[in-house]
Write a structure and sequence with these properties.
Blueprint: H1 2-28, H2 32-44, H3 48-53, H4 60-72, H5 74-82, E1 85-93, E2 96-103, E3 108-117, E4 120-123, E5 129-132, E6 138-141
Antiparallel strand pairs: 1-2, 2-3, 3-4, 5-6
Helix pairs in contact: 4-5
Length: 149
């Protein structure tokens, strides 16, 4: 009887480990366009912790800012949720790239860097400045480093 209980405990542990391993593997195998779509969906539906999962750590402050603006006024939250924002373009070269979102409601585009961190694609959601280089393609400049005054 005692060995049956121990066997059940071990079976349960192996099942749990298997589920956790599968879950981690499923996220790591996400393609850049899937990460970009999931990030924007989470942001628009006020799932800010989920949005952080798809973003680089240096993006958390900007996500928190969006959250505070959206939560501070009903109009802000409504505007974010009612905007029709889609992934327009994803470009990847090696361990980095960018995603361009099209806001169909406001008729604007916004481009953010994509980076590969620990085998997972992440959005760098921060203030940046897209600048065309000599070939006419956009190069994304990272936010200014303000950590050392």
């Amino acid at each position: 009887m005692k060995t049956a209980g121990v066997a059940c405990v071990y079976a349960g542990l192996f099942w749990l480990i298997g589920i956790c391993s599968w879950g981690c593997h499923a996220h790591k195998s996400m393609k850049p366009d899937e990460v970009a779509s999931s990030f924007m969906y989470a942001l628009q539906h006020a799932h800010y912790d989920s949005a952080k999962y798809y973003a680089t750590k240096d993006s958390y402050e900007m996500i928190d800012l969006v959250a505070s603006i959206a939560e501070s006024t009903p109009q802000g939250k409504k505007k974010i949720q009612q905007s029709e924002i889609v992934v327009q373009k994803v470009f990847i070269q090696g361990d980095s790239g960018y995603v361009t979102y099209l806001n169909k409601t406001a008729h604007t585009t916004e481009t953010f860097p994509l980076v590969l961190e620990a085998g997972e694609w992440k959005i760098r959601f921060a203030h940046q400045l897209p600048v065309p280089d000599s070939s006419g393609t956009e190069q994304i400049l990272p936010p200014a480093d303000t950590s050392n005054p």
